[in-house]
Amino acid sequence: MYVDLPEAELRAYRGSGREPADFDEFWAGTLAEARSHDLAVTVERVATQLTTLDVYDVSFAGFGGQRVRAWLRVPAGTEGPLPTVVQFHGYGRGRGDEVENLLWASAGYAHLELDTRGQAWSGSRGATPDEVGSGPQVPGFLTRGIESAATYYFRRLITDAVRLTDAARELSLVDAGRIAIFGISQGGGLTLAVAGLVPDLAGAIARVPFLCDFPRATVITDAKPYKEIGEYLAWYRDRTERVLDTLSYFDGVNFARRAKAPVWITAALMDAVCPPSTVFAAYNNYAGPKQVTVWPYNGHEGGGVDDDLLTLGALREVLGR
Questions:
Q1: Backbone angle region of 162, left / alpha / beta, with phi > 0 → left and psi within -120 to 50 → alpha
Q2: What end-to-end distance do the CA atoms of the chain give, in Å?
Q3: How far apart (Å, rounded) are the C-alpha atoms in residues 226 and 214?
Q4: What does the alpha-carbon distance between residue 135 and residue 239 come to, in Å, rounded to a whole number?
Q5: Fewer CB within 10 Å, N or C, the chain?
Q6: Catalytic one of 57, 134, 300, 308
C-alpha cells in the first residue's frame, strides 16, 4: 500500500530538514584533510574465469588516509580510456566478489565499484574495515559516531566515495572527462552526496536514494535502517537536537542543492525503507538538470530490471556510448 503523501503533493514537497550555516566549510575541510594524503592508487589484475571482461583489484587512500578497496571491470582486452561508471552500494553491501555485478562493464563501460567500509554483511562480501571507533550506538551504522558531525560514520563513507571518484581520474583505463556516478538506496544517497561535492561529472543516477530528509524519515517509517535512529533516541531522549544537527551535514537534500550534473532519480510509492517524500525532497531541491521516474506499485526494490534499462539509457545519454 502507499506509505506516504499522494503523488501530486510529493512533487511539491521540499523537505523538513535544516541546512547548517557551515555546511560548505565542513565539507571543504573534510575533503581538504582527506586530499592531504596521497591517493596512492594501486591496480592489480585479478585472474578470473571470465572471458569477456578483465577485472582489477584497486586500492586507494580514503578518509584519514585509510586504505579502501574497489573493483575495476572493463571489457576484455581494453587498453585505452573508457567512459566510466563509478558505483556506490546499498546498506549492508560491500563490493562483492570479482565475478559479480557484470552488467555495466558488459555494456562497454569501465566499472569502478566502491567497497563500503565496515559493512558487507548483507547481499555481498567486502574487504575494507572501518578503522574508527564509536560511542554508544544501535546495531547498524546510522548511529555510529552520531554524537557529532566530525565523528559520524557517514563522514568517512562519503569521503571514501569522493576519493574513489578522484582515484578514477588517475586510472589509465578511465576517460576522466566521462565519469557518471550511480547507486541504489544507500548508494543513491552517496551518489547525491558526491554529485554535490565533486564538479564536472557527466551524470548521476540515484535509484530509491537513502540518507535524505532525516527529520521526516525517522518519524514516518518503522522500517530499518531509519528505525535505528528512532531506537537510539528512544533511549537517549535528551539528544534529539544534537542528533538532528549531526544528520543535517549528511542529508541528501543539502547535497542536492549543490549538485549540477544531470541526474536521474527513481522513487517507489510503496517504499517504506526510503519513503517517497524523502526522495522527492532531494529531487525537488536538486540544482542541476533532473528527471524522476515513479514506480507506483513498488516498494524498495524500485523498478528492478526496468531501472537497469533506465540506467543504461541514462548512461548512454551522458557518456555517449
A1: alpha
A2: 38
A3: 8
A4: 13
A5: N
A6: 300
Tell me the C-alpha to C-alpha distance, in Å, between residue 20 and each of 39, 179, 254: 29, 29, 9
- Residue 185 designated active-site: yes
Residue 300 is among the residues annotated as catalytic for this protein? yes
Q: Is residue 261 classed as helix, strand or coil in its secondary structure?
A: coil
What is the distance between the alpha carbons of residues 119 and 130, in angstroms, rounded to a whole number? 8
| Residue of 306, 319, 262, 264 lying closest to 107 (CA atoms) | 319
Catalytic residue among 185, 213, 277, 307: 185
Place of cell 517517497: 276
* pLDDT in single tens digits along all 321 residues of the chain: 999 999 999 999 999 989 999 999 999 999 999 999 999 999 999 999 999 999 999 999 999 999 999 999 999 999 989 999 999 999 999 999 999 999 999 999 999 999 999 998 888 899 999 988 778 788 899 999 999 999 999 999 999 999 999 999 999 999 999 999 999 999 999 999 999 999 999 999 999 999 999 999 999 999 999 999 999 999 999 999 999 999 999 999 999 999 999 999 999 999 999 999 999 999 999 999 999 999 999 999 999 999 999 999 999 999 987
Collapse the DSSP code of 141 into the 3-class scheme (helix H, G, I; strand E, B; otherwise coil) and give the result. Answer: coil
**Exposed e or buried b per residue across 5-17, where buried means at least 16 C-beta atoms within 10 angstroms of its C-beta:** beeeebeebebbb
DSSP string, 185-229: THHHHHHHHHHHH--S-SEEEEES--S--HHHHHHH---TTHHHH
In the structure grid, which three cell numbers stand for residue 270, read together?
Answer: 510503496
Residue 239: DSSP 8-state: G
The residue annotated as part of the active site, out of 115, 130, 213, 271, is: 271
Cβ–Cβ under 8 Å, residues 185 and 289: no
Report the C-alpha gap between 231 and 40 in whole angstroms. 40
Does this model's pTM top 0.85? My answer is: yes
